[in-house]
Amino acid sequence: MPEHFDESDFVDQDYQASQRSPSSATGYSKTTQTSGSDAAGSSKAPNMEDLDHQVTTAQQKLTELRRAQEELERERAQLEESRRRQHEFQTGRDEMVQNLTRGIELLGEAEFAARQEAEQMAKTLKGLRDALEKLQSIQEDEWSQEAYETELTKALSTIENARMEWNGAQLKWPILTDPENKPAAGSAQATDSDSRLNWLSDQNLRQLCKLGLALTWPLALVALIAVSLLLFILILRGG
Q: Domains of the chain: which residue ranges?
Protein backbone atom coordinates (compact mmCIF):
# COMPACT_ATOMS: atom_id res chain seq x y z
CA MET A 1 0.00 0.00 0.00
CA PRO A 2 1.52 3.26 -1.05
CA GLU A 3 2.39 5.74 1.86
CA HIS A 4 0.41 9.02 2.18
CA PHE A 5 2.47 12.20 2.80
CA ASP A 6 1.11 15.48 4.25
CA GLU A 7 2.31 18.88 3.09
CA SER A 8 3.39 19.79 6.53
CA ASP A 9 6.04 17.12 6.37
CA PHE A 10 7.97 19.10 3.81
CA VAL A 11 7.83 22.52 5.73
CA ASP A 12 10.76 23.69 7.90
CA GLN A 13 8.83 24.97 10.90
CA ASP A 14 11.88 26.45 12.69
CA TYR A 15 12.73 28.60 9.72
CA GLN A 16 9.19 29.84 9.38
CA ALA A 17 9.08 30.75 13.09
CA SER A 18 12.23 32.80 12.74
CA GLN A 19 10.85 34.54 9.71
CA ARG A 20 7.57 35.35 11.42
CA SER A 21 9.19 37.06 14.49
CA PRO A 22 11.90 39.41 13.21
CA SER A 23 10.81 42.03 15.74
CA SER A 24 11.85 39.81 18.62
CA ALA A 25 15.38 39.62 17.36
CA THR A 26 15.40 43.32 16.67
CA GLY A 27 14.04 44.06 20.15
CA TYR A 28 16.68 41.91 21.75
CA SER A 29 19.31 43.78 19.83
CA LYS A 30 17.92 47.16 20.91
CA THR A 31 17.73 46.08 24.56
CA THR A 32 21.32 45.00 24.48
CA GLN A 33 22.33 48.31 22.95
CA THR A 34 20.34 50.32 25.54
CA SER A 35 21.90 48.46 28.47
CA GLY A 36 25.26 49.10 27.03
CA SER A 37 24.49 52.79 26.66
CA ASP A 38 23.31 53.04 30.32
CA ALA A 39 26.43 51.37 31.58
CA ALA A 40 28.54 53.72 29.54
CA GLY A 41 26.52 56.77 30.80
CA SER A 42 26.90 55.86 34.53
CA SER A 43 30.64 55.78 34.37
CA LYS A 44 31.11 59.15 32.76
CA ALA A 45 32.56 62.20 34.71
CA PRO A 46 30.09 64.62 36.50
CA ASN A 47 29.36 67.89 34.82
CA MET A 48 29.09 71.40 36.37
CA GLU A 49 25.40 71.02 37.23
CA ASP A 50 26.06 67.84 39.18
CA LEU A 51 28.91 69.50 41.09
CA ASP A 52 26.73 72.50 41.96
CA HIS A 53 24.03 70.18 43.24
CA GLN A 54 26.52 68.26 45.38
CA VAL A 55 27.97 71.51 46.82
CA THR A 56 24.48 72.78 47.65
CA THR A 57 23.60 69.50 49.36
CA ALA A 58 26.80 69.55 51.40
CA GLN A 59 26.20 73.18 52.41
CA GLN A 60 22.67 72.35 53.57
CA LYS A 61 23.97 69.45 55.66
CA LEU A 62 26.66 71.68 57.16
CA THR A 63 24.04 74.31 58.03
CA GLU A 64 21.88 71.69 59.70
CA LEU A 65 24.89 70.43 61.68
CA ARG A 66 25.72 73.97 62.83
CA ARG A 67 22.11 74.53 63.84
CA ALA A 68 22.16 71.29 65.82
CA GLN A 69 25.47 72.33 67.42
CA GLU A 70 24.02 75.70 68.46
CA GLU A 71 21.00 73.96 69.93
CA LEU A 72 23.25 71.62 71.91
CA GLU A 73 25.29 74.62 73.13
CA ARG A 74 22.13 76.33 74.37
CA GLU A 75 20.99 73.15 76.05
CA ARG A 76 24.40 72.75 77.70
CA ALA A 77 24.30 76.38 78.92
CA GLN A 78 20.83 75.84 80.40
CA LEU A 79 21.98 72.67 82.16
CA GLU A 80 25.04 74.44 83.58
CA GLU A 81 22.85 77.30 84.84
CA SER A 82 20.44 74.82 86.42
CA ARG A 83 23.36 73.03 88.07
CA ARG A 84 24.74 76.33 89.40
CA ARG A 85 21.35 77.36 90.80
CA GLN A 86 20.86 73.92 92.34
CA HIS A 87 24.27 74.18 94.04
CA GLU A 88 23.41 77.71 95.22
CA PHE A 89 20.10 76.44 96.59
CA GLN A 90 21.69 73.58 98.51
CA THR A 91 24.55 75.61 99.97
CA GLY A 92 22.26 78.56 100.77
CA ARG A 93 19.72 76.35 102.48
CA ASP A 94 22.37 74.59 104.56
CA GLU A 95 23.94 77.91 105.53
CA MET A 96 20.66 79.54 106.52
CA VAL A 97 19.43 76.48 108.41
CA GLN A 98 22.65 76.51 110.42
CA ASN A 99 22.50 80.28 111.04
CA LEU A 100 18.81 80.31 111.95
CA THR A 101 19.18 77.31 114.26
CA ARG A 102 22.11 78.94 116.06
CA GLY A 103 20.31 82.30 116.19
CA ILE A 104 17.15 80.77 117.62
CA GLU A 105 19.18 78.95 120.26
CA LEU A 106 21.12 82.05 121.28
CA LEU A 107 18.08 84.32 121.28
CA GLY A 108 16.10 81.71 123.21
CA GLU A 109 18.73 81.66 125.92
CA ALA A 110 18.90 85.45 125.94
CA GLU A 111 15.11 85.68 126.09
CA PHE A 112 15.00 83.27 129.02
CA ALA A 113 17.68 85.23 130.87
CA ALA A 114 15.92 88.51 130.07
CA ARG A 115 12.61 87.09 131.27
CA GLN A 116 14.17 86.03 134.55
CA GLU A 117 15.83 89.41 134.87
CA ALA A 118 12.54 91.14 134.11
CA GLU A 119 10.76 89.07 136.76
CA GLN A 120 13.40 89.95 139.35
CA MET A 121 13.24 93.59 138.33
CA ALA A 122 9.44 93.52 138.61
CA LYS A 123 9.72 92.15 142.17
CA THR A 124 12.26 94.82 143.08
CA LEU A 125 10.09 97.51 141.51
CA LYS A 126 7.07 96.31 143.49
CA GLY A 127 9.07 96.40 146.71
CA LEU A 128 10.27 99.92 146.03
CA ARG A 129 6.75 101.09 145.23
CA ASP A 130 5.37 99.50 148.37
CA ALA A 131 8.11 101.11 150.46
CA LEU A 132 7.42 104.51 148.87
CA GLU A 133 3.71 104.16 149.44
CA LYS A 134 4.25 103.34 153.10
CA LEU A 135 6.56 106.30 153.55
CA GLN A 136 4.14 108.66 151.85
CA SER A 137 1.29 107.38 154.01
CA ILE A 138 3.02 108.62 157.19
CA GLN A 139 1.25 111.76 158.42
CA GLU A 140 3.26 112.99 161.39
CA ASP A 141 1.08 116.06 161.80
CA GLU A 142 -1.79 113.80 162.77
CA TRP A 143 0.07 112.09 165.63
CA SER A 144 -1.38 112.67 169.04
CA GLN A 145 0.69 113.42 172.11
CA GLU A 146 -0.14 110.05 173.68
CA ALA A 147 0.72 107.97 170.58
CA TYR A 148 3.71 110.03 169.57
CA GLU A 149 6.34 107.54 170.68
CA THR A 150 4.49 104.60 169.19
CA GLU A 151 3.92 106.31 165.83
CA LEU A 152 7.52 107.49 165.76
CA THR A 153 8.74 103.96 166.35
CA LYS A 154 6.52 102.70 163.52
CA ALA A 155 7.75 105.46 161.22
CA LEU A 156 11.39 104.68 161.98
CA SER A 157 10.73 100.99 161.33
CA THR A 158 9.08 101.89 158.02
CA ILE A 159 12.09 104.00 157.08
CA GLU A 160 14.47 101.16 157.94
CA ASN A 161 12.44 98.76 155.87
CA ALA A 162 12.51 101.18 152.95
CA ARG A 163 16.27 101.61 153.37
CA MET A 164 16.75 97.85 153.38
CA GLU A 165 14.64 97.58 150.24
CA TRP A 166 16.64 100.33 148.59
CA ASN A 167 20.02 98.85 149.51
CA GLY A 168 18.96 95.44 148.25
CA ALA A 169 17.77 96.99 144.99
CA GLN A 170 21.11 98.77 144.59
CA LEU A 171 22.95 95.48 145.03
CA LYS A 172 20.81 93.81 142.39
CA TRP A 173 20.63 96.63 139.87
CA PRO A 174 23.78 98.72 139.29
CA ILE A 175 21.73 101.21 137.28
CA LEU A 176 20.40 102.53 140.61
CA THR A 177 23.96 103.36 141.67
CA ASP A 178 24.99 104.98 138.36
CA PRO A 179 21.91 106.06 136.41
CA GLU A 180 24.04 107.69 133.68
CA ASN A 181 25.67 104.37 132.77
CA LYS A 182 22.69 102.30 131.70
CA PRO A 183 23.61 98.68 130.92
CA ALA A 184 22.45 97.12 127.70
CA ALA A 185 19.64 94.57 127.77
CA GLY A 186 20.88 91.19 128.88
CA SER A 187 24.16 92.53 130.28
CA ALA A 188 22.97 93.23 133.83
CA GLN A 189 23.59 89.69 134.99
CA ALA A 190 27.03 89.54 133.35
CA THR A 191 28.20 92.63 135.30
CA ASP A 192 26.17 92.05 138.46
CA SER A 193 28.95 90.60 140.61
CA ASP A 194 31.52 93.19 139.57
CA SER A 195 29.09 96.03 140.20
CA ARG A 196 28.27 94.73 143.66
CA LEU A 197 31.94 94.47 144.57
CA ASN A 198 32.64 97.95 143.23
CA TRP A 199 29.69 99.39 145.12
CA LEU A 200 30.75 97.74 148.38
CA SER A 201 34.32 98.95 147.99
CA ASP A 202 33.07 102.51 147.63
CA GLN A 203 31.15 102.45 150.94
CA ASN A 204 32.68 103.55 154.25
CA LEU A 205 32.51 101.61 157.49
CA ARG A 206 29.44 103.39 158.78
CA GLN A 207 27.48 102.73 155.61
CA LEU A 208 28.54 99.10 155.62
CA CYS A 209 27.39 98.77 159.22
CA LYS A 210 24.05 100.26 158.32
CA LEU A 211 23.79 97.93 155.38
CA GLY A 212 24.62 94.96 157.57
CA LEU A 213 22.06 96.06 160.12
CA ALA A 214 19.46 96.53 157.42
CA LEU A 215 20.09 93.02 156.13
CA THR A 216 20.27 91.32 159.54
CA TRP A 217 17.72 93.26 161.60
CA PRO A 218 14.95 90.66 161.06
CA LEU A 219 17.17 88.01 162.66
CA ALA A 220 18.15 90.39 165.43
CA LEU A 221 14.48 91.19 166.06
CA VAL A 222 13.63 87.49 166.25
CA ALA A 223 16.52 86.91 168.64
CA LEU A 224 15.42 89.86 170.76
CA ILE A 225 11.86 88.57 170.93
CA ALA A 226 13.12 85.12 171.86
CA VAL A 227 15.31 86.53 174.64
CA SER A 228 12.41 88.63 175.91
CA LEU A 229 10.11 85.63 176.00
CA LEU A 230 12.75 83.60 177.81
CA LEU A 231 13.21 86.33 180.42
CA PHE A 232 9.45 86.64 180.81
CA ILE A 233 9.15 82.87 181.38
CA LEU A 234 11.97 82.91 183.92
CA ILE A 235 10.36 85.83 185.74
CA LEU A 236 7.05 83.98 185.91
CA ARG A 237 8.70 80.85 187.24
CA GLY A 238 10.69 82.83 189.79
CA GLY A 239 7.57 84.59 190.98
A: 58-139, 155-183+190-239
